[in-house]
Write a structure and sequence with these properties.
By secondary structure, this protein is α/β, with parallel strands linked by helices. Helix content is about 50%, strand content about 15%. α4 packs across α9, α6 crosses α7 and α12 runs parallel beside α13. It is elongated and about 80 Å long. The protein starts with a helix and ends with a helix.
């Protein structure tokens, strides 16, 4: 039987593994998963004044003249041009001639603007469709419009936020357990960080290796990695293989390795997870974590 099965008093490894898969969570979505509002307004703040200046164009019929007028008087407004099309880059190329494959470059770096620059930037506003929206008053306020654009761009980060949410959830339990047992822990722990805080030398397999959490109980180290998989894919199998090797690497140095993973994605990828479970000491999910398993491991 595995060390964890014995520790939790399960009658067999099969019984424990069945409990783990039975209690996988479907979702760990919290409100901050949907929109990172801090990031949205952090991106908006540096161009808010420029967007308000560009509001001058709303409803203007002789638009080209007004665009050039604003660019001459306030050339700094060009830094707000990219985000109007949900672009982060400082320049873009657009295929202007589909027969000869000629491209037109639009540069949004602040500089002294000559007449060619003014004409090109006016073209950008008008040919992109933004000009029509402004002329026809489809956009009432560019600050509000760009806030919406930033929300849309931020939604692309949701996949990465799932990992951060899992780390945040796990850290709640790690922190509470360590406070209860009066033992220190580190988040995003590297070999250098462990040496600096605890004076302990470890050999790392990769120069940039960072453990999600490291716990130091009287010189005995416990390393924790955590992740959540809402969907399946080859990543799950490769992660299980990698963590089996990682367990062996740390174990050779007398370090305990704990993998905390969860998510419905595992339900159709159980074989590699079971292989990890059979070859290592500690496989936990959020349910086992909630039930105090980490404390039992640390006090065993």
């Amino acid at each position: 039987m595995t060390k964890l099965s014995k520790l939790l008093c399960f009658e067999s490894d099969n019984a424990l593994f069945e409990e783990i898969q039975r209690t996988f969570k479907e979702k760990i979505t919290q409100w901050d998963y949907f929109v990172n509002w801090e990031k949205v307004f952090r991106n908006l703040s540096p161009i808010e004044v420029e967007l308000n200046i560009l509001n001058h164009l709303i409803g203007k019929q002789n638009q080209r003249r007004e665009i050039i007028f604003l660019l001459k008087k306030y050339p700094e407004i060009i830094k707000a041009f990219p985000i109007l099309l949900a672009i982060r880059e400082k320049s873009i190329q657009v295929l202007a001639d589909t027969e000869k494959f000629l491209y037109h470059n639009y540069n949004f770096i602040q500089r002294e603007l000559d007449q060619t620059d003014l004409e090109n930037l006016a073209d950008y506003i008008q040919q992109s469709g933004i000009g029509t929206l402004l002329k026809d008053k489809k956009i009432k306020n560019l600050v509000d419009y760009v806030t919406g654009v930033e929300v849309g761009l931020d939604s692309n980060g949701r996949k990465n936020r799932t990992g951060s949410l899992m780390e945040s959830l796990v850290e709640n339990f790690v922190r509470d357990t360590c406070e209860k047992l009066d033992v220190p822990y580190l988040a995003q722990a590297s070999g250098k960080k462990i040496k600096k805080h605890w004076g302990l030398d470890i050999i790392v397999d990769k120069s940039k290796r960072q453990l999600d959490f490291a716990i130091n109980k009287s010189g005995k180290l416990y390393f924790i990695e955590c992740n959540f998989y809402g969907g399946g894919g080859s990543k799950l199998k490769s992660t299980a293989t990698e963590y089996t090797q990682m367990y062996q690497f740390w174990r050779a140095q007398g370090i305990e390795f704990i993998w905390i993973t969860d998510g419905a994605g595992w339900k159709n990828t159980l074989k590699p997870l079971r292989e990890y479970f059979d070859k290592t000491d500690y496989l936990l999910n959020l349910n086992l974590l909630k039930n105090g398993t980490l404390e039992r491991i640390l006090t065993n």
